[in-house]
Structure formats: structure tokens, C-alpha cells
Amino acid sequence: MSLSVIILAAGQGTRMRSSKPKVLHQIGGKAMLQRVLDNAHSLKADHVHVVYGHGAEQVLETIQDSDIKWVMQAEQLGTGHAVGQAMPGIADDETVLILYGDVPLTRTKTLESLIEAAASGVGLLTVILGDPTGYGRIIRNDSGQVLAIVEEKDASEEQKRIAEGNTGMMAVNGGLLRRWLSRLDNSNAQAEYYLTDIIAMAVSDGVTVNAVQADSVIEVSGVNNRIQLAEMERALQRRHAEEAMTAGATLADPARFDLRGELSVGEDATIDINVVFEGKVSLGNGVSIGPNCYLKNATLADDVHILANTVIEDAVIGAGSRIGPFARIRPDTELKGNNHIGNFVEIKKSIIGEGSKVNHLTYIGDTIMGRDVNIGAGTITANYDGANKYQTIIEDNASTGSNSVLIAPVKVGKGATLGAATVLRKEAAEGQLTMSMIKQKTIEGWKRPVKKT
Ligand code: UD1
Ligand code: CA
């Protein structure tokens, strides 16, 4: 049967105290609404309808997804009214799953059970709560059948003692939903059109309500303020940490682990505290990451050791390399393997051949470096003349003296050696020692280069 998902996301979220609509606040580096959409997609929904209202422009700008049917709810008159706005786009013979843009951590398998429960009636996701305050309460008869949902504000003292709460998520046939929504009224404590009222209508029409209880409160919890946002973030990170540990990584402290993307780990990887992973990161077997590192879109082969306070972005690190402490590997860099990159070294858009070392206080940019090169402390590739960038080539077994400046475009030949403080403007000959000693002078009428068009 065809599946349509309706995501309610029109509310303002006043308690976030934000100029950003609530559903755009992020969990694990991704907007909450995007997480709910990902869930809908992983259920292989045929259609996804998002009911939006507050912060409409920002929502449309942030969530770029051509498969969504956007439904505007200009005035928020209640959850039943919100679902009603999407109904013109819903067919009678499909299953409709109702989700919420501010409930980001629901597991796919929970939603699958809910959809299954809708095959023989209405599927209703409920949860047992330590403190059910604020939730609609599930009213059952003596034989345990669900009869109705009563909102907190409409509940009697006795009903308020019921621990089973309504998560708001449900799955229901499109035709039945349409019929029941048309019968809603707003004669209740909040003068809202309650979606929850359809449960009693189902019962009076002889349709069974199949309650599915969620395993954990967190997967059905919504976010109303930044305290709950932080709790949700930690819950997600705990899940991520457990996945990493299950895959073979040792975490110094799962509570100080942050993944905002996807991480794959090899066996016996170790991750120290306060490491942030972003985008797609892959760690080979035996990799270790020291404290306070930031890795974004990086692939680390086996036995790579990243020492404290290192930043790596859009780079591939070959096996057996050691990087840091305090190193920065910038985009489009590839280390071929067994490299040593030391403190206060920045490498950008460069290829570093197998076994080459760049140990101290160096900038390497737009460079192709061969094997077994040794770069002396303080070596700089001057790749930029203020307007354009140029390439440096350093061939196998070359060695640069401390404080050398390689003014690109320039080449250091195979096995060439540069004396300390060489300012290299022309090719350093293969196998020779090259030095430059220029007396200080001022060039009259010199002009800065202009950008090439
Ligand atoms: C709702 C349920 C309650 C349940 C609780 C779980 C109803 C009447 N009550 O109560 O039984 O225990 O969720 O959190 O459904 N929204 C719209 N448009 C509207 C109204 C709401 O998009 O017109 C969205 C809100 O942005 C929010 C969600 O629907 O994300 C829930 O609405 P809210 O008013 O917060 O419902 P609750 O009072 O929490
Ligand atoms: Ca709510």
C-alpha cells in the first residue's frame, strides 16, 4: 500500500527564544526537520507532506528537497487543523503516517511497527512516562482497549494519573482520516482542533486502535527549549558513541564524543576526549586520535596517529602516518603514507609522497612532494603573489634548510639540498646544494602583481 507521511512543522517554538524556527535547530549537525525527513525517506514513503508556517522562508531555504509537498498552515489552529491542511494531497487508499518536525530521534523500526499496526485499524504510538505532565493521556477500558486520548488541559485529576502518554505519532488510512478530521471541533480547553480526538471517533466507528509502545522516551520526545535541545543532542551522541564502540573503537569518554555526520571505524581505533567528527570520516584499523581534534571529511588509513589539537579537513591520510600535535591539514591534501607532520605545520592542496617529513613550523601549499623528502623547520612555500597561486614541486629525497622560502612556481630537484634560509626563485638542481644570499636592497618603482583575467 502507498505511504504518505505528514510532518507537522508549523509551530513557532516560542520557548527556543530564537529568530530561527524551532524545526531548523540542529541535532548532530543537522536540522531536526531534516532528521525527520530522513526518517520518512528511509521508510520509503511515496509522498512526504510538510505542514509549515512560522519562519516559512527560512524553512524553504534550509530544507532543499524537491520530493516534499509543502503545505502552508498560515494560522496554527491545532494539530487536527494542521493535518487537515495536507489532506487535499492525500488519497483515500493510502496509509498516512503523522510525524513532528521537532521530534528528531524516532527509530525507523518503531515507525515500521506503527505502520504495521495501521493495517488492521489505527496505529497509535504511545509511551510510558515517569512524569506524564503535558502529554495527552491514553484512556483504555478494563480489557486494555484504547478508547480515547484526553489532553492534559482537559483531563480530570484521575486521568492525569495515567502514565501512558500520547506521542502524537500515528498511522491511519487516508479515507478514514479525512472523514474523522471533517468532524473535529474546537470545543475544548484550548479552543484547538485536536488531532487526538480522532481516536474516540475511530472507536465509535468500530475501528480498532492498535497502540504501539515506544521503547524509550527519548525517541518520542520533542524539543521545546534549548535545554531539551542539549539533552537530545547528548542522547544522539550516546547512540553514535555506542555504534563506534560496537564497531571496535575505544572511546576515552563516550560523553565527550561528537559526531555531526557519518563515521566508520576500524578495529582497535582509539578516540580520546573532545574529538569532533563532521561530514564523512573513516578511520582504519589501529588509528588513534588524540584529545581536542577536529576531523571533517577525512579518510585515515590503518595505523594513523593523530596527536592532540590537530585539525584535518577534506584530506586523505596514508597508512602509518603521524600528525600533530597542533597540525592543520587543509582541503585537497593527500599524504601517501608513513608521513610525519609535526607541530604548527599547515598543509593545503598538496600531495606528500611516502615517508616524507614536515616536522615543524611550516606552510606547504599547492605542492607536489615526492618520497622521503625532509622539510626543515620554518620552510614556507610562497604559493601566492597576492593575486594568483602557483605550484611548487619537490622531488624525491630533497631536503630544505630551516627558514627556506620556495617562491612558486619553482622546483626542487631530486636529492637537492637547500641551505638554511634559502630564498628559492629558480630550480634547485638535482643532487646539489643550493643557497641564496642576497644583500638587503630596495627596488625602485616595483609594483604589486595584478590578478590575471
Ligand atoms: C500534542 C498532542 C498530545 C501529545 C503531545 C506530545 C494534540 C492535540 N495533542 O500536544 O496528546 O501528548 O503532542 O508532544 O495533538 N503544530 C502545527 N500546527 C498547529 C499545531 C501544532 O504544526 O496548528 C505542530 C507544532 O509545531 C508541534 C506539534 O504540532 O511541533 C505539536 O503541537 P503542540 O501544540 O505542541 O501539541 P501539544 O500540546 O504538545
Ligand atoms: Ca508539544
Description:
The chain contains 8 helices and 35 strands. The chain folds into 2 domains: 218 residues, Spore Coat Polysaccharide Biosynthesis Protein SpsA, Chain A, CATH 3.90.550; 195 residues, Hexapeptide repeat proteins (UDP N-Acetylglucosamine Acyltransferase, domain 1). The protein has 453 residues and is an alpha/beta fold. A hairpin with a 2-residue loop joins strand 2 and strand 3. The protein is elongated and about 95 Å long. The chain starts with a strand and ends in a 19-residue tail after the last strand. The strands form 5 sheets. The chain has a 21-stranded parallel beta sheet that branches. A 7-stranded mixed beta sheet has the order 5-4-1-6-10-7-11, with helices on both faces. The structure holds uridine-diphosphate-N-acetylglucosamine and calcium ion (CA). The site of uridine-diphosphate-N-acetylglucosamine (UD1) has 27 residues, from strand 1, helix 3 and strand 10.
Query: Count of helices?
Result: 8
| Count of β-strands | 35
Helix/strand structural class: alpha/beta
Bound molecules: uridine-diphosphate-N-acetylglucosamine, calcium ion
User: If you average the pLDDT, what whole number results?
Assistant: 97
Q: How would you name the CATH homologous superfamily of the largest domain?
A: Spore Coat Polysaccharide Biosynthesis Protein SpsA, Chain A
Rg from Cα: 30 Å
Alpha carbon gap, first and last residue: 59 Å
- The helical percent reads 10-25%
Number of domains: 2
Beta-sheet strand percentage? 25-35%
Please describe the biggest sheet, giving its number of strands, its sense, and whether it closes into a barrel: 21 strands, parallel
CATH architecture of the largest domain: Alpha-Beta Complex
CATH topology of the largest domain: Spore Coat Polysaccharide Biosynthesis Protein SpsA, Chain A
Envelope shape: elongated
